[in-house]
Amino acid sequence: xxxxxxxxxxxxxxxxxNQVVLRxxxxxxxxxRGCMVVRPYGWALWxxxxxxxxxxxxxxxxxxxxFPMLIPKSFLEKEKEHVEGFSPELAVVTIGGxxxxxxxxxxxxxxxxxxxxxxxxxxxxxxxxxxLINQWGNVVRWEMRTRLFLRTxxxxxxxxxxxxxxxxxxxxxxxxxLEVYTRFAIDDAAVPVLPGRxxxxxxFAGAQRTYSIEAMMGxxxxxxxxxxxxxxxxxAKAFDIRYLDPNNQLQYxxxxxxxxxxxxxxxxxxxxxxxxxxILPPRLAPIQIVVIPIFRNDEEKSVVMPIVERxxxxxxxxxxxxxxxxxxxxxxxxxxxxxxxxxLRLEIGPKDVQNHTVMAARRDIPGKGGKTLLNQDQISSQVxxxxxxxxxxxxxxxxxxxDEHIYNPKNYEEFKQAVTQGWAFSWWCGNAECEGQIKxxxxxTTRCMPMDQPEGKGTCIYCGEPAHEKxxxxxxx
Amino acid sequence: xxxxxxxxxxxxxxxxxNQVVLRxxxxxxxxxRGCMVVRPYGWALWxxxxxxxxxxxxxxxxxxxxFPMLIPKSFLEKEKEHVEGFSPELAVVTIGGxxxxxxxxxxxxxxxxxxxxxxxxxxxxxxxxxxLINQWGNVVRWEMRTRLFLRTxxxxxxxxxxxxxxxxxxxxxxxxxLEVYTRFAIDDAAVPVLPGRxxxxxxFAGAQRTYSIEAMMGxxxxxxxxxxxxxxxxxAKAFDIRYLDPNNQLQYxxxxxxxxxxxxxxxxxxxxxxxxxxILPPRLAPIQIVVIPIFRNDEEKSVVMPIVERxxxxxxxxxxxxxxxxxxxxxxxxxxxxxxxxxLRLEIGPKDVQNHTVMAARRDIPGKGGKTLLNQDQISSQVxxxxxxxxxxxxxxxxxxxDEHIYNPKNYEEFKQAVTQGWAFSWWCGNAECEGQIKxxxxxTTRCMPMDQPEGKGTCIYCGEPAHEKxxxxxxx
Lengths: 477, 477
What we know:
Chain A is built from 14 helices and 26 strands. Chain A has helices at 13-23, 40-59, 73-76, 80-86, 112-122, 167-188, 234-239, 263-272, 298-314, 330-339, 350-355, 379-404, 412-421, 432-442; strands at residues 27-29, 36-38, 63-64, 70-72, 91-96, 99-107, 131-140, 154-164, 194-197, 209-216, 222-230, 242-244, 250-252, 254-261, 289-293, 320-322, 344-348, 357-362, 371-375, 406-407, 423-428, 445-446, 449-450, 458-459, 466-467, 469-474. Chains A and B meet through strand 2, helix 2, strand 3, strand 4 and strand 5 of A and strand 2, helix 2, strand 3, strand 4 and strand 5 of B.
């Protein structure tokens, strides 16, 4: 870890973000432009995200599988909107085993096409439906402006792909997975996302309806943190995914897809971090508790370490690290683990041994306010309470911040001001032209139309025509 | 599942294998030549393999990370043997985002080069060592003759990459991971592998020493099921991985790498399967127990199902599936789950309800010999014992089969006969020429030289010159 101070969030949020990612050793730049290396600490965080989501997917009846990374170029061309959306972003394998390939292969940017092809082979009858498959993997999109975790050429994600017998079932699945993402984000990541439907111009290429969860970052910008698509029959028709219904009639399936990626790591960093570095929600933190033994000489060490060992055993159900590096001062270690966002620090020195105490310091409340002197007895239940409180407090703080920065501008003048300071929640006529003008004039885009809409109707914030839905507008990552 | 009978193993082992993979729905052919789709049942098996290995890696101090899939072509050229070994097998990305790339990118066939590059950035001091990182991911090798799981263009694996301060530490790590693979194979997969060192001609491209675990398949052929490489300082010198030692002198690191892939799924199939299909070891089986309710009408159903539900709850700690598909007969279901290799089947019919019994059928012992009538009380402990016995019996059977098919031929004539019926364990002078001649004349290759060598010396089975090591020779996958 570098000793230099982080840039403050207020002064340069973007540079603060880059520095936190590098100094907390979450990720590093790869030698290929726009690619990243996810370092062990960052990957451990992603593994916890994976575990939380995977459990939720399985609880809703999904199974995992693995589809190939290389897709024949012709597959992408079978769905018109899909190929238009992804063509500019493709990485293409043209040589294999020393020979120029007859048909170039695409490194998957997403897997609707190859999975559609396989589903057309596997699905025969209504008895085979629904098919509920998820895949954890890597994809490549040739992005021009890249940022670690937020937008990289290669990224890691899960993509669910399901096939159903009716539009209603597909829509139900699409919304179920949106809810899974929402619960994961709020309950485990303490990121108070807002779920809703995307506008037509922000739809996934080839989808009939796209829903997303949208999160407000610490600089008030929006981050699309997960998406769920009702693909209608578009891919079923392009890939001939059909089933015999109970009346022995061939019908096209209705399909969905939904994904959440390593981008979410960026959402966690930019939602919770502070000027000292990362702050991780206890439920996902790779290290929930760091224990710093404090001693000045071997005699003190021989008094302190047995207690540290005992507490470590009593706290075995937590993800805990004892920092016993001998060449570093406690002060250095405090800063180091603050940078890495460990939610709770326990300090144990000779006085604590004498007094049967442990000093606990909360990462979310810097300084004395976050310190509590614990009794060594029943340490596990005290620590459970503290971690629960940190989890709740992170969510509360982020929710308050979000709500304080969502405005209801009365007119377009106020709107223009609002989107420089946060989000605007405004009536919109639904017309892509107004959406485009607003984007051009303010850089704010439609984020999503929440499910819970206010009663009644309004008038479009831009053109003044009648509007029947309110939408979040924001500058986005 | 098709109703047609499987080809028998004796009659056509290779076709038996292909059919089992497809009919048990472990995997399917992808539209790109040589690629596979791992279907949910196959992926669940792989996930159990992953969990077992991952736990063992973490217990030996390793952490996971993720390195990019795209590698600059020039990186591969930095280690001479490495590039020679992998050049013919590369998939090359030449176009990105619609533009021809200045430098083509290789889809990783393995990650020594890109990880070496990152280690040279990260490792500064002896305090940074050892670095013990593993990665789970996909790689691509442009193979010409492919078989599902055994050899595919894209496959899934883990690759560990470590850096150390001395040759001895690197060698210790290499052997530690060989032992991890051996324990996993024997204890969890019931595959009685033989660990040992590879001959120079069978070394990994760029390694100083390669070790492997070798397994005997049901047709007596050998399958290399995992490898561990001591890379010496080859990659450290090619990628400038250096550290300051305690005397402030710059030293090159010593590195290792080790990998085990979805090929291991093939090893499990070909070790345990029989003419009815797959047989999975209970510790790795995605479904350990299948429960088949048996009834002829709604009245019987209403009697049977409550007991099924109760037993299901009592067996909640097992991976259990109740097959309540109404359109299929019990006989069809028996065959179906036998094909899929579920270790234990429980049948419950109206008589069992009356008699407070459950019929248990072991997958590893077909017919009446494998059936036991259980009491419904304390079902969990009875099932635990049965599954333990199945696990042990699979290992015992495979070990017996292996040992019965390893020969100690007295001369080359006997040797030639031996390698058509199994493996030959023979003295070898260590000369690549003899090895090459044997391969040409018998198709048998050196598999590995086991750690435990017999006392004394012998004479080379081919040339008669003095030999100080015995080696396994076999025809291999």
